[in-house]
Amino acid sequence: MSNSNNLKVRIGVLALQGAVREHIQHIEALGAVGMAIKRPRELKEIAGLIIPGGESTTIGKLMVEYEFIDAIRDFHAAGKPIYGTCAGMILLAKTITEGDQPLLSLMDIEARRNAFGRQRESFEADLAIKGIGSFNAVFIRAPWIESVGEGVDTLAEFDTIEHGNVKVMARQGSLLASAFHPELTGDVRVHKYFLNMIKEA
Amino acid sequence: MIETGTLRVKTGLAEMLKGGVIMDVTDAKQAKIAEDAGAVAVMALERVPADIRAAGGVARMADPTKVEEIVSMVTIPVMAKARIGHFVEAQILEALGVDYIDESEVLTPADEEHHINKWDFKVPFVCGCRNLGEALRRISEGAAMIRTKGEPGTGNIVEAVRHMRSVREGISWLKGLRDDELFAAAKDLQAPYDLVKWVHDNGKLPVVNFSAGGVATPADAALMMQLGADGVFVGSGIFKSGDPAKRAKAIVQATTHFNDAELLAKVSKDLGEPMVGIEISQIPEAERMQERGW
Prior knowledge:
The complex is a heterodimer. By secondary structure, chain A is α/β, with parallel strands linked by helices. Helix content of chain A is 27%, strand content 34%. Chain A has a single domain (10-200), classed as Class I glutamine amidotransferase (GATase) domain (Rossmann fold, 3-Layer(aba) Sandwich), CATH 3.40.50.880. Chain A has helices at residues 2-7, 20-29, 56-65, 68-77, 87-92, 189-200, and strands spanning 10-14, 33-37, 48-51, 82-85, 93-96, 107-112, 123-129, 133-139, 144-148, 153-160, 164-172, 175-178. The two termini of chain A are 26 Å apart. Chain B is an alpha/beta fold. Chain B has one domain: Aldolase class I (TIM Barrel). In chain B, strands 8-7-6-5-4-3-2-9 form an eight-stranded parallel beta sheet, with helices on both faces. The termini of chain B are far apart. Chains A and B meet through helix 2, helix 3 and strand 7 of A and strand 1, helix 1 and helix 12 of B. Chain B: Its EC number is 4.3.3.6. Chain B: It holds the Pfam family SOR_SNZ. Chain B: Keywords: Lyase, Pyridoxal phosphate, Schiff base.
């Protein structure tokens, strides 16, 4: 058993706060090994990292407190893929439109927090994701991507009534970000996409 | 097609709060301290439970001005309390843009028979429980998140522990039953059969369960997490203590690293005076908030 586990891809989920368990369940449904990451030293045991949804201010403060900022930047510099959902997307962004919370500033995007509004505006909708297809996406007090830099591939957009098309999923090399929560649905295709990024890395 | 207010969207926000601390605040200044300390959400209140207990009289929903002041101060979710059964207070809180409504025993109940029909709302609700049956009754009424009640405003963790253990014991008991025993179990629990069957099959509650009512120290928060809470509510414990900002931050860290005793030792140091606690047996039964709701 331990041998087959050694051959499986190990994916970490940053477990400072937020929806950790759901990501681990999706990872394991794909036959990979999911690990909750609470300390920077645990990063060396994994091939890819998911930064989950939660409160980005809380996760950001705890990342500073437990010295995750430089550790995750090093993880990225070593070419290992990172996927951020919702709060995780905000933390990956180079800049945010408002506020001065701690960020990893790895991905050349600008994120707008709570862009769709408060909880009563949270919603589900079908999206067309490049390379994946139609996907039922759950947005919770979600951010969107205000703008992207060169080299960032926009994978999904959402047509809002007031603001027209807004970007909700993007990839830049080994970085993946979505404003919505694939871990809250039974659909593992986004996680499979990320697993493939890890295998190619 | 866009759908708002779905069960997945309602329970989903609670999933995002997991591993976090939700703090009671009574004004914008406290809300800012809570957010800076790393709270995942704040609960907007007129008075914290310890003061409600001391003041007596009828406790109601907070003044909308106060709720709006808090909503505009922070970027994290804002919760607010409505009285049990008071669906108009809930309608008002929904109109104010509150992110979660706590149908709470901390306030004086408005209905001694019926809770709010929470399916009528787009905004999600959290409700208190002392045991599995009570949790499932609230979920059947549409609660998207549960918290064990404890005894609010006491700074005494004993009731929170009792209720968390009771929910857990209820779940283990259901898991061990045969399928044909679930009908009688539903009757005993006074809960709908479908929810009883779901818990039997899945071995957990269908929604997130936080701990509330009595958390005063980082060790209390970690205790509740080790007992299986998904996160903690801290009411009077922070702003009735000597150094709220420091204690709030320490409780946040203890909730994240609830299994790391060395870290718990470190963050528990020099926090100033904790809130003054109350021994439960000193509270007359009629004044115990946990008895409210059915």
